[in-house]
Amino acid sequence: MNHTKETRFPAAALEHGDIVRELLDCAVACETCAASCLNEEDVTMMARCIELDRDCAELCMQAVHLLLRDSELAQPFLVVCEEACRLCAEECEKHEQDHCKRCADACERCADTCRDRLKVAS
After folding, report:
1. Phi, psi of 7 (to 5 degrees)
2. 71 belongs to a structural domain
3. Which end of the chain has fewer CB atoms at under 10 Å, N or C?
4. What whole-number distance in Å separates Cα of residue 81 and Cα of residue 76?
5. Number of folded domains in the chain?
6. 9 belongs to a structural domain
7. Is residue 64 assigned to a domain?
């Protein structure tokens, strides 16, 4: 007897797949950057980067949650998420570390995706 379980994704996951992937990629990049910054020789110099990494990661994850449950707050929340991603990208671009460069790239892509989604929704 075959007891394979069919995986079913909620309609919201399919509808918002692209932006959810960008938000998740950004959250992972930010968490990785924050953890890597804590291992830098001069952690004090990285304090603002760590703060923005953590804020951005949390906001991206919250946006995913709102999108996946089709919350009416999802679209307005993307405005906040876009801003957090831009601030984080600006800060990470100030640093030479590879993890900061990767984070800045992920944040820029995510901010652009949020902006594009907001344009479509309006």
Report:
1. -85, 125
2. yes
3. N
4. 9
5. 1
6. no
7. yes
Which amino acid, one-letter code, is at 68? L
Q: Which two tokens stand for residue 52?
A: 């923005």
What is the distance between the alpha carbons of residues 86 and 25, in angstroms, rounded to a whole number? 15
- For residue 112, the domain's CATH number is 1.20.1270.360
DSSP readout, 70-104?
Answer: T-TTHHHHHHHHHHHHHHHHHHHTT---HHHHHHH
Q: Give the model confidence (pLDDT) of 31-46 as tens digits.
A: 999 999 999 999 999 9
Distance CA 49, CA 71 (A): 30
Q: Is residue 4 part of a domain?
A: no
Residue 88 corresponds to which tokens in the numbers above? 């984080």
| Amino acid letter, 57 | A
The residue range of the domain holding 102 is 14-121
